[in-house]
Structures are given as C-alpha cells and as structure tokens.
Amino acid sequence: MFSKSDSFSRFMGIGCCSCFGFNVQSQEHLLSDYESDDGGDYDCERTDMTNGSYAELQSPSKRSEQIILFRIQTGKICREIPVKETHLVVRSEDDSGNKMVNEYVREFKIGSGSYAKVVLYRSTIDGKRYAIKAFHKSHLLKQRVAPSETAMSDVLREVLIMKMLDHPNIVNLIEVMDDPNTDQFYMVLEYVEGKWAPEGSGASGGLEDTTIRKYLRDIVAGLMYLHTHNVVHGDIKPDNLLVTGSGVVKIADFSVSQVFEDENDELRRSPGTPVFTAPECCSGITYHGRAADTWALGVTLYYMVFGKYPFIGDTLQETYDKIVNNPITIPDEIDSQLKNLLEGILCKDPQYRFTLNAIAEHPWVLGEEGPIPQHVCRCKRNIF
C-alpha cells in the first residue's frame, strides 16, 4: 500500500508528516492522531454518536455490521469481487529463507504504529506486491478505546467499511486473514507505490498548480464516493492520501471512519488529527462528519499550495484556538480563483462551507480538464 519512503512512515498515526514532498514543523503531537490525557473530545477512539438511545446503546462496530449486512441484502454493495476471507494462516519460509504468510513472501517492512505493522509482501500466485497490515489480536483486545470497546472493535469496523468500497481513488482491501487458532490478524491491501513531487516546486513553496489540481480532483472524487455511500472518513490528510506511479491519488486508512444508515452524519467526538480538525469539532458538541471531512480537505489543499498548515500552534490548545478564532491568511499574489476556493472550503461556519459538489464545480477545479469524470457504482449510484 505504501512505497518505501519517509512519506509513508505514519501509517498507524506516528512518524513524519512530509507527504507531498514537504518538510514541516516538528510538533508531532499536533500532526498525528491525538489522545488526550483526560479522554477528551480529541482522542483516537471511534465516534459512536447518533441521536437516540438505541444508537447510543450499540457499539459503532455492531451498527456498521448491521448497516453493511442490510446493504448486502438490498444489493447496495459496490464490490463485484468480494474481499477474500481466509481462516487458516500458515507461517513458513521460501527456499531463500524469506518469511512467508500463506502465499505471500515478505520483502521489507514499510511502517509500524501502536496497533500494527505494515509489511510489503509479494504473492507467489499472481506475482503482485501487497501491503499487509498485521495485528496481534491479544494486543488489540487489551487496548480500551471507549468504555465498551477495544482496539479490536476499531479494526473490525475498518474491515467492514472497506469490504463495501470499490472506487479508483480508494485503496482496495484484497483479503482478510484471521485464523482462530493464531494470534495474528492480517489485512492484505493494494500496494500503492507513488512518487511525490519535488519539495517547494510551486510558486508559493508548495506543489505546482497542475499537480495540485490533479490531486484535488482525485481526492474530491474519492470523498464524494464515500459521502454518497454514507461513509465519513474522519482523518483526511496527506499521510492518508497515497499517489500511484501514474499520479492517481487513493484515499487510505479507514481506521477512524464511520458508516451511517442515512444522511444523518451527526457525530460527537472527533477522532482525527489536530491540525486538520474543523472548528465545530473543537467545541465538544455534535458536528456533521461530511462537513468535517471537507474542512480537512481544505487544510490539505492549503498544505499542497503553501507547504505549511493554515492553523498550528506550539501546543494543542493553541492550535485549537487558532482553528476556531484566527482568520485564514492567503497571500495576495495567489490566483484569485484558488483564493476563493480556499476561503470557501476553510469557512469556519459549516453551514456556509463549500460542499464537495461546489468544490467539484468550482472554476479553479474544473480548469482546462472540465468536470470530474463520473463513476457509476455497481450499486447504481452516480458519483464522481
């Protein structure tokens, strides 16, 4: 799923934030998933908030399972080829002494985090490379992320959500390996080996406008697909946006994502990354997941343009204060259409913030390419 580069070292929420070819400040606690000391509103645990006592009594994983099962029964799953489920795991070595998991031969470690490590493997069946995310179930079950949930609940929800997704701008889950007789749990993911643009290649220290527009169109297409299917990503940021060798952006890491039954995407806790947190998420009250995803997209766009974040302080609280109170700063020499786009996406009031549809139809996004190509889902929904 990741190339062997520094840009990918934060797969599970730790490491650098040098994606898109930039080096940034060292406030790593602001650039990674934050867990507050008092279990406050900005930790890494999943949100389990919709209005109504029935929803509050159920775990998010259980609700996700029920929603996805209902979609399967009603033919609203996009995947034509289902995720392979394997319940026998054999660990061995090939003739050269390389470690193997079933038919996959280990090549090298890509990254690691608090819950998992990610290793590049090559399949002996089709010869392709895959990124395998490996967990220890015993460790996940010990990690409490909410009063009624463990980290295992998080992982299972991530799997459930990825099982229903099929879009060219979203990383594909290929196989899940879960042997009841072993402690290992594996997610076999599409390997995306991308090359990022040179650092500071753009006029303002960021990427070139043509590259930014291309990346943004891909991200918008993937996000529109998710939101149309009532999935909120929850952690849109450069680290979770991978680029293929041909320059296609794919959204990755659904570890804090949520799936909803309908258009009601109300959440109460923000599990994302501090510098990408929307202003309404800083208040500790309910907010709408789609609008929060859109804000994070705006911060990502700002980062692509300028090579820095629009709101960041020396401490977590200072960062949140700036997100809520400080006006966005955009140099006058920036293209007027791009400035309008940034101001619209980074509008602090979610009621007036640009929607994904508005972004997709914005003149700067259209450029010379025109409308973002439509993607027709197997479930018959028309999306970008």
TrEMBL record:
Q: What is its EC number?
A: 2.7.11.1
- This chain belongs to the protein called non-specific serine/threonine protein kinase
Q: Name one GO molecular function term.
A: protein serine/threonine kinase activity
What are the transmembrane regions?
none
- Family assignment from sequence similarity: Belongs to the protein kinase superfamily.
Start and end residues of each Protein kinase domain? 104-365
The record lists the catalysed reaction(s) as: L-threonyl-[protein] + ATP = O-phospho-L-threonyl-[protein] + ADP + H(+); L-seryl-[protein] + ATP = O-phospho-L-seryl-[protein] + ADP + H(+)
Look up the domain of life of the source. Eukaryota
Do you know which PROSITE patterns this protein is assigned to? PROTEIN_KINASE_ATP (PS00107), PROTEIN_KINASE_DOM (PS50011), PROTEIN_KINASE_ST (PS00108)
Alphabetically list the UniProt keywords: ATP-binding, Host-virus interaction, Kinase, Nucleotide-binding, Phosphoprotein, Serine/threonine-protein kinase, Transferase
GO CC field: cytoplasm
What's the source species for this entry?
A: Papaver somniferum (Opium poppy)
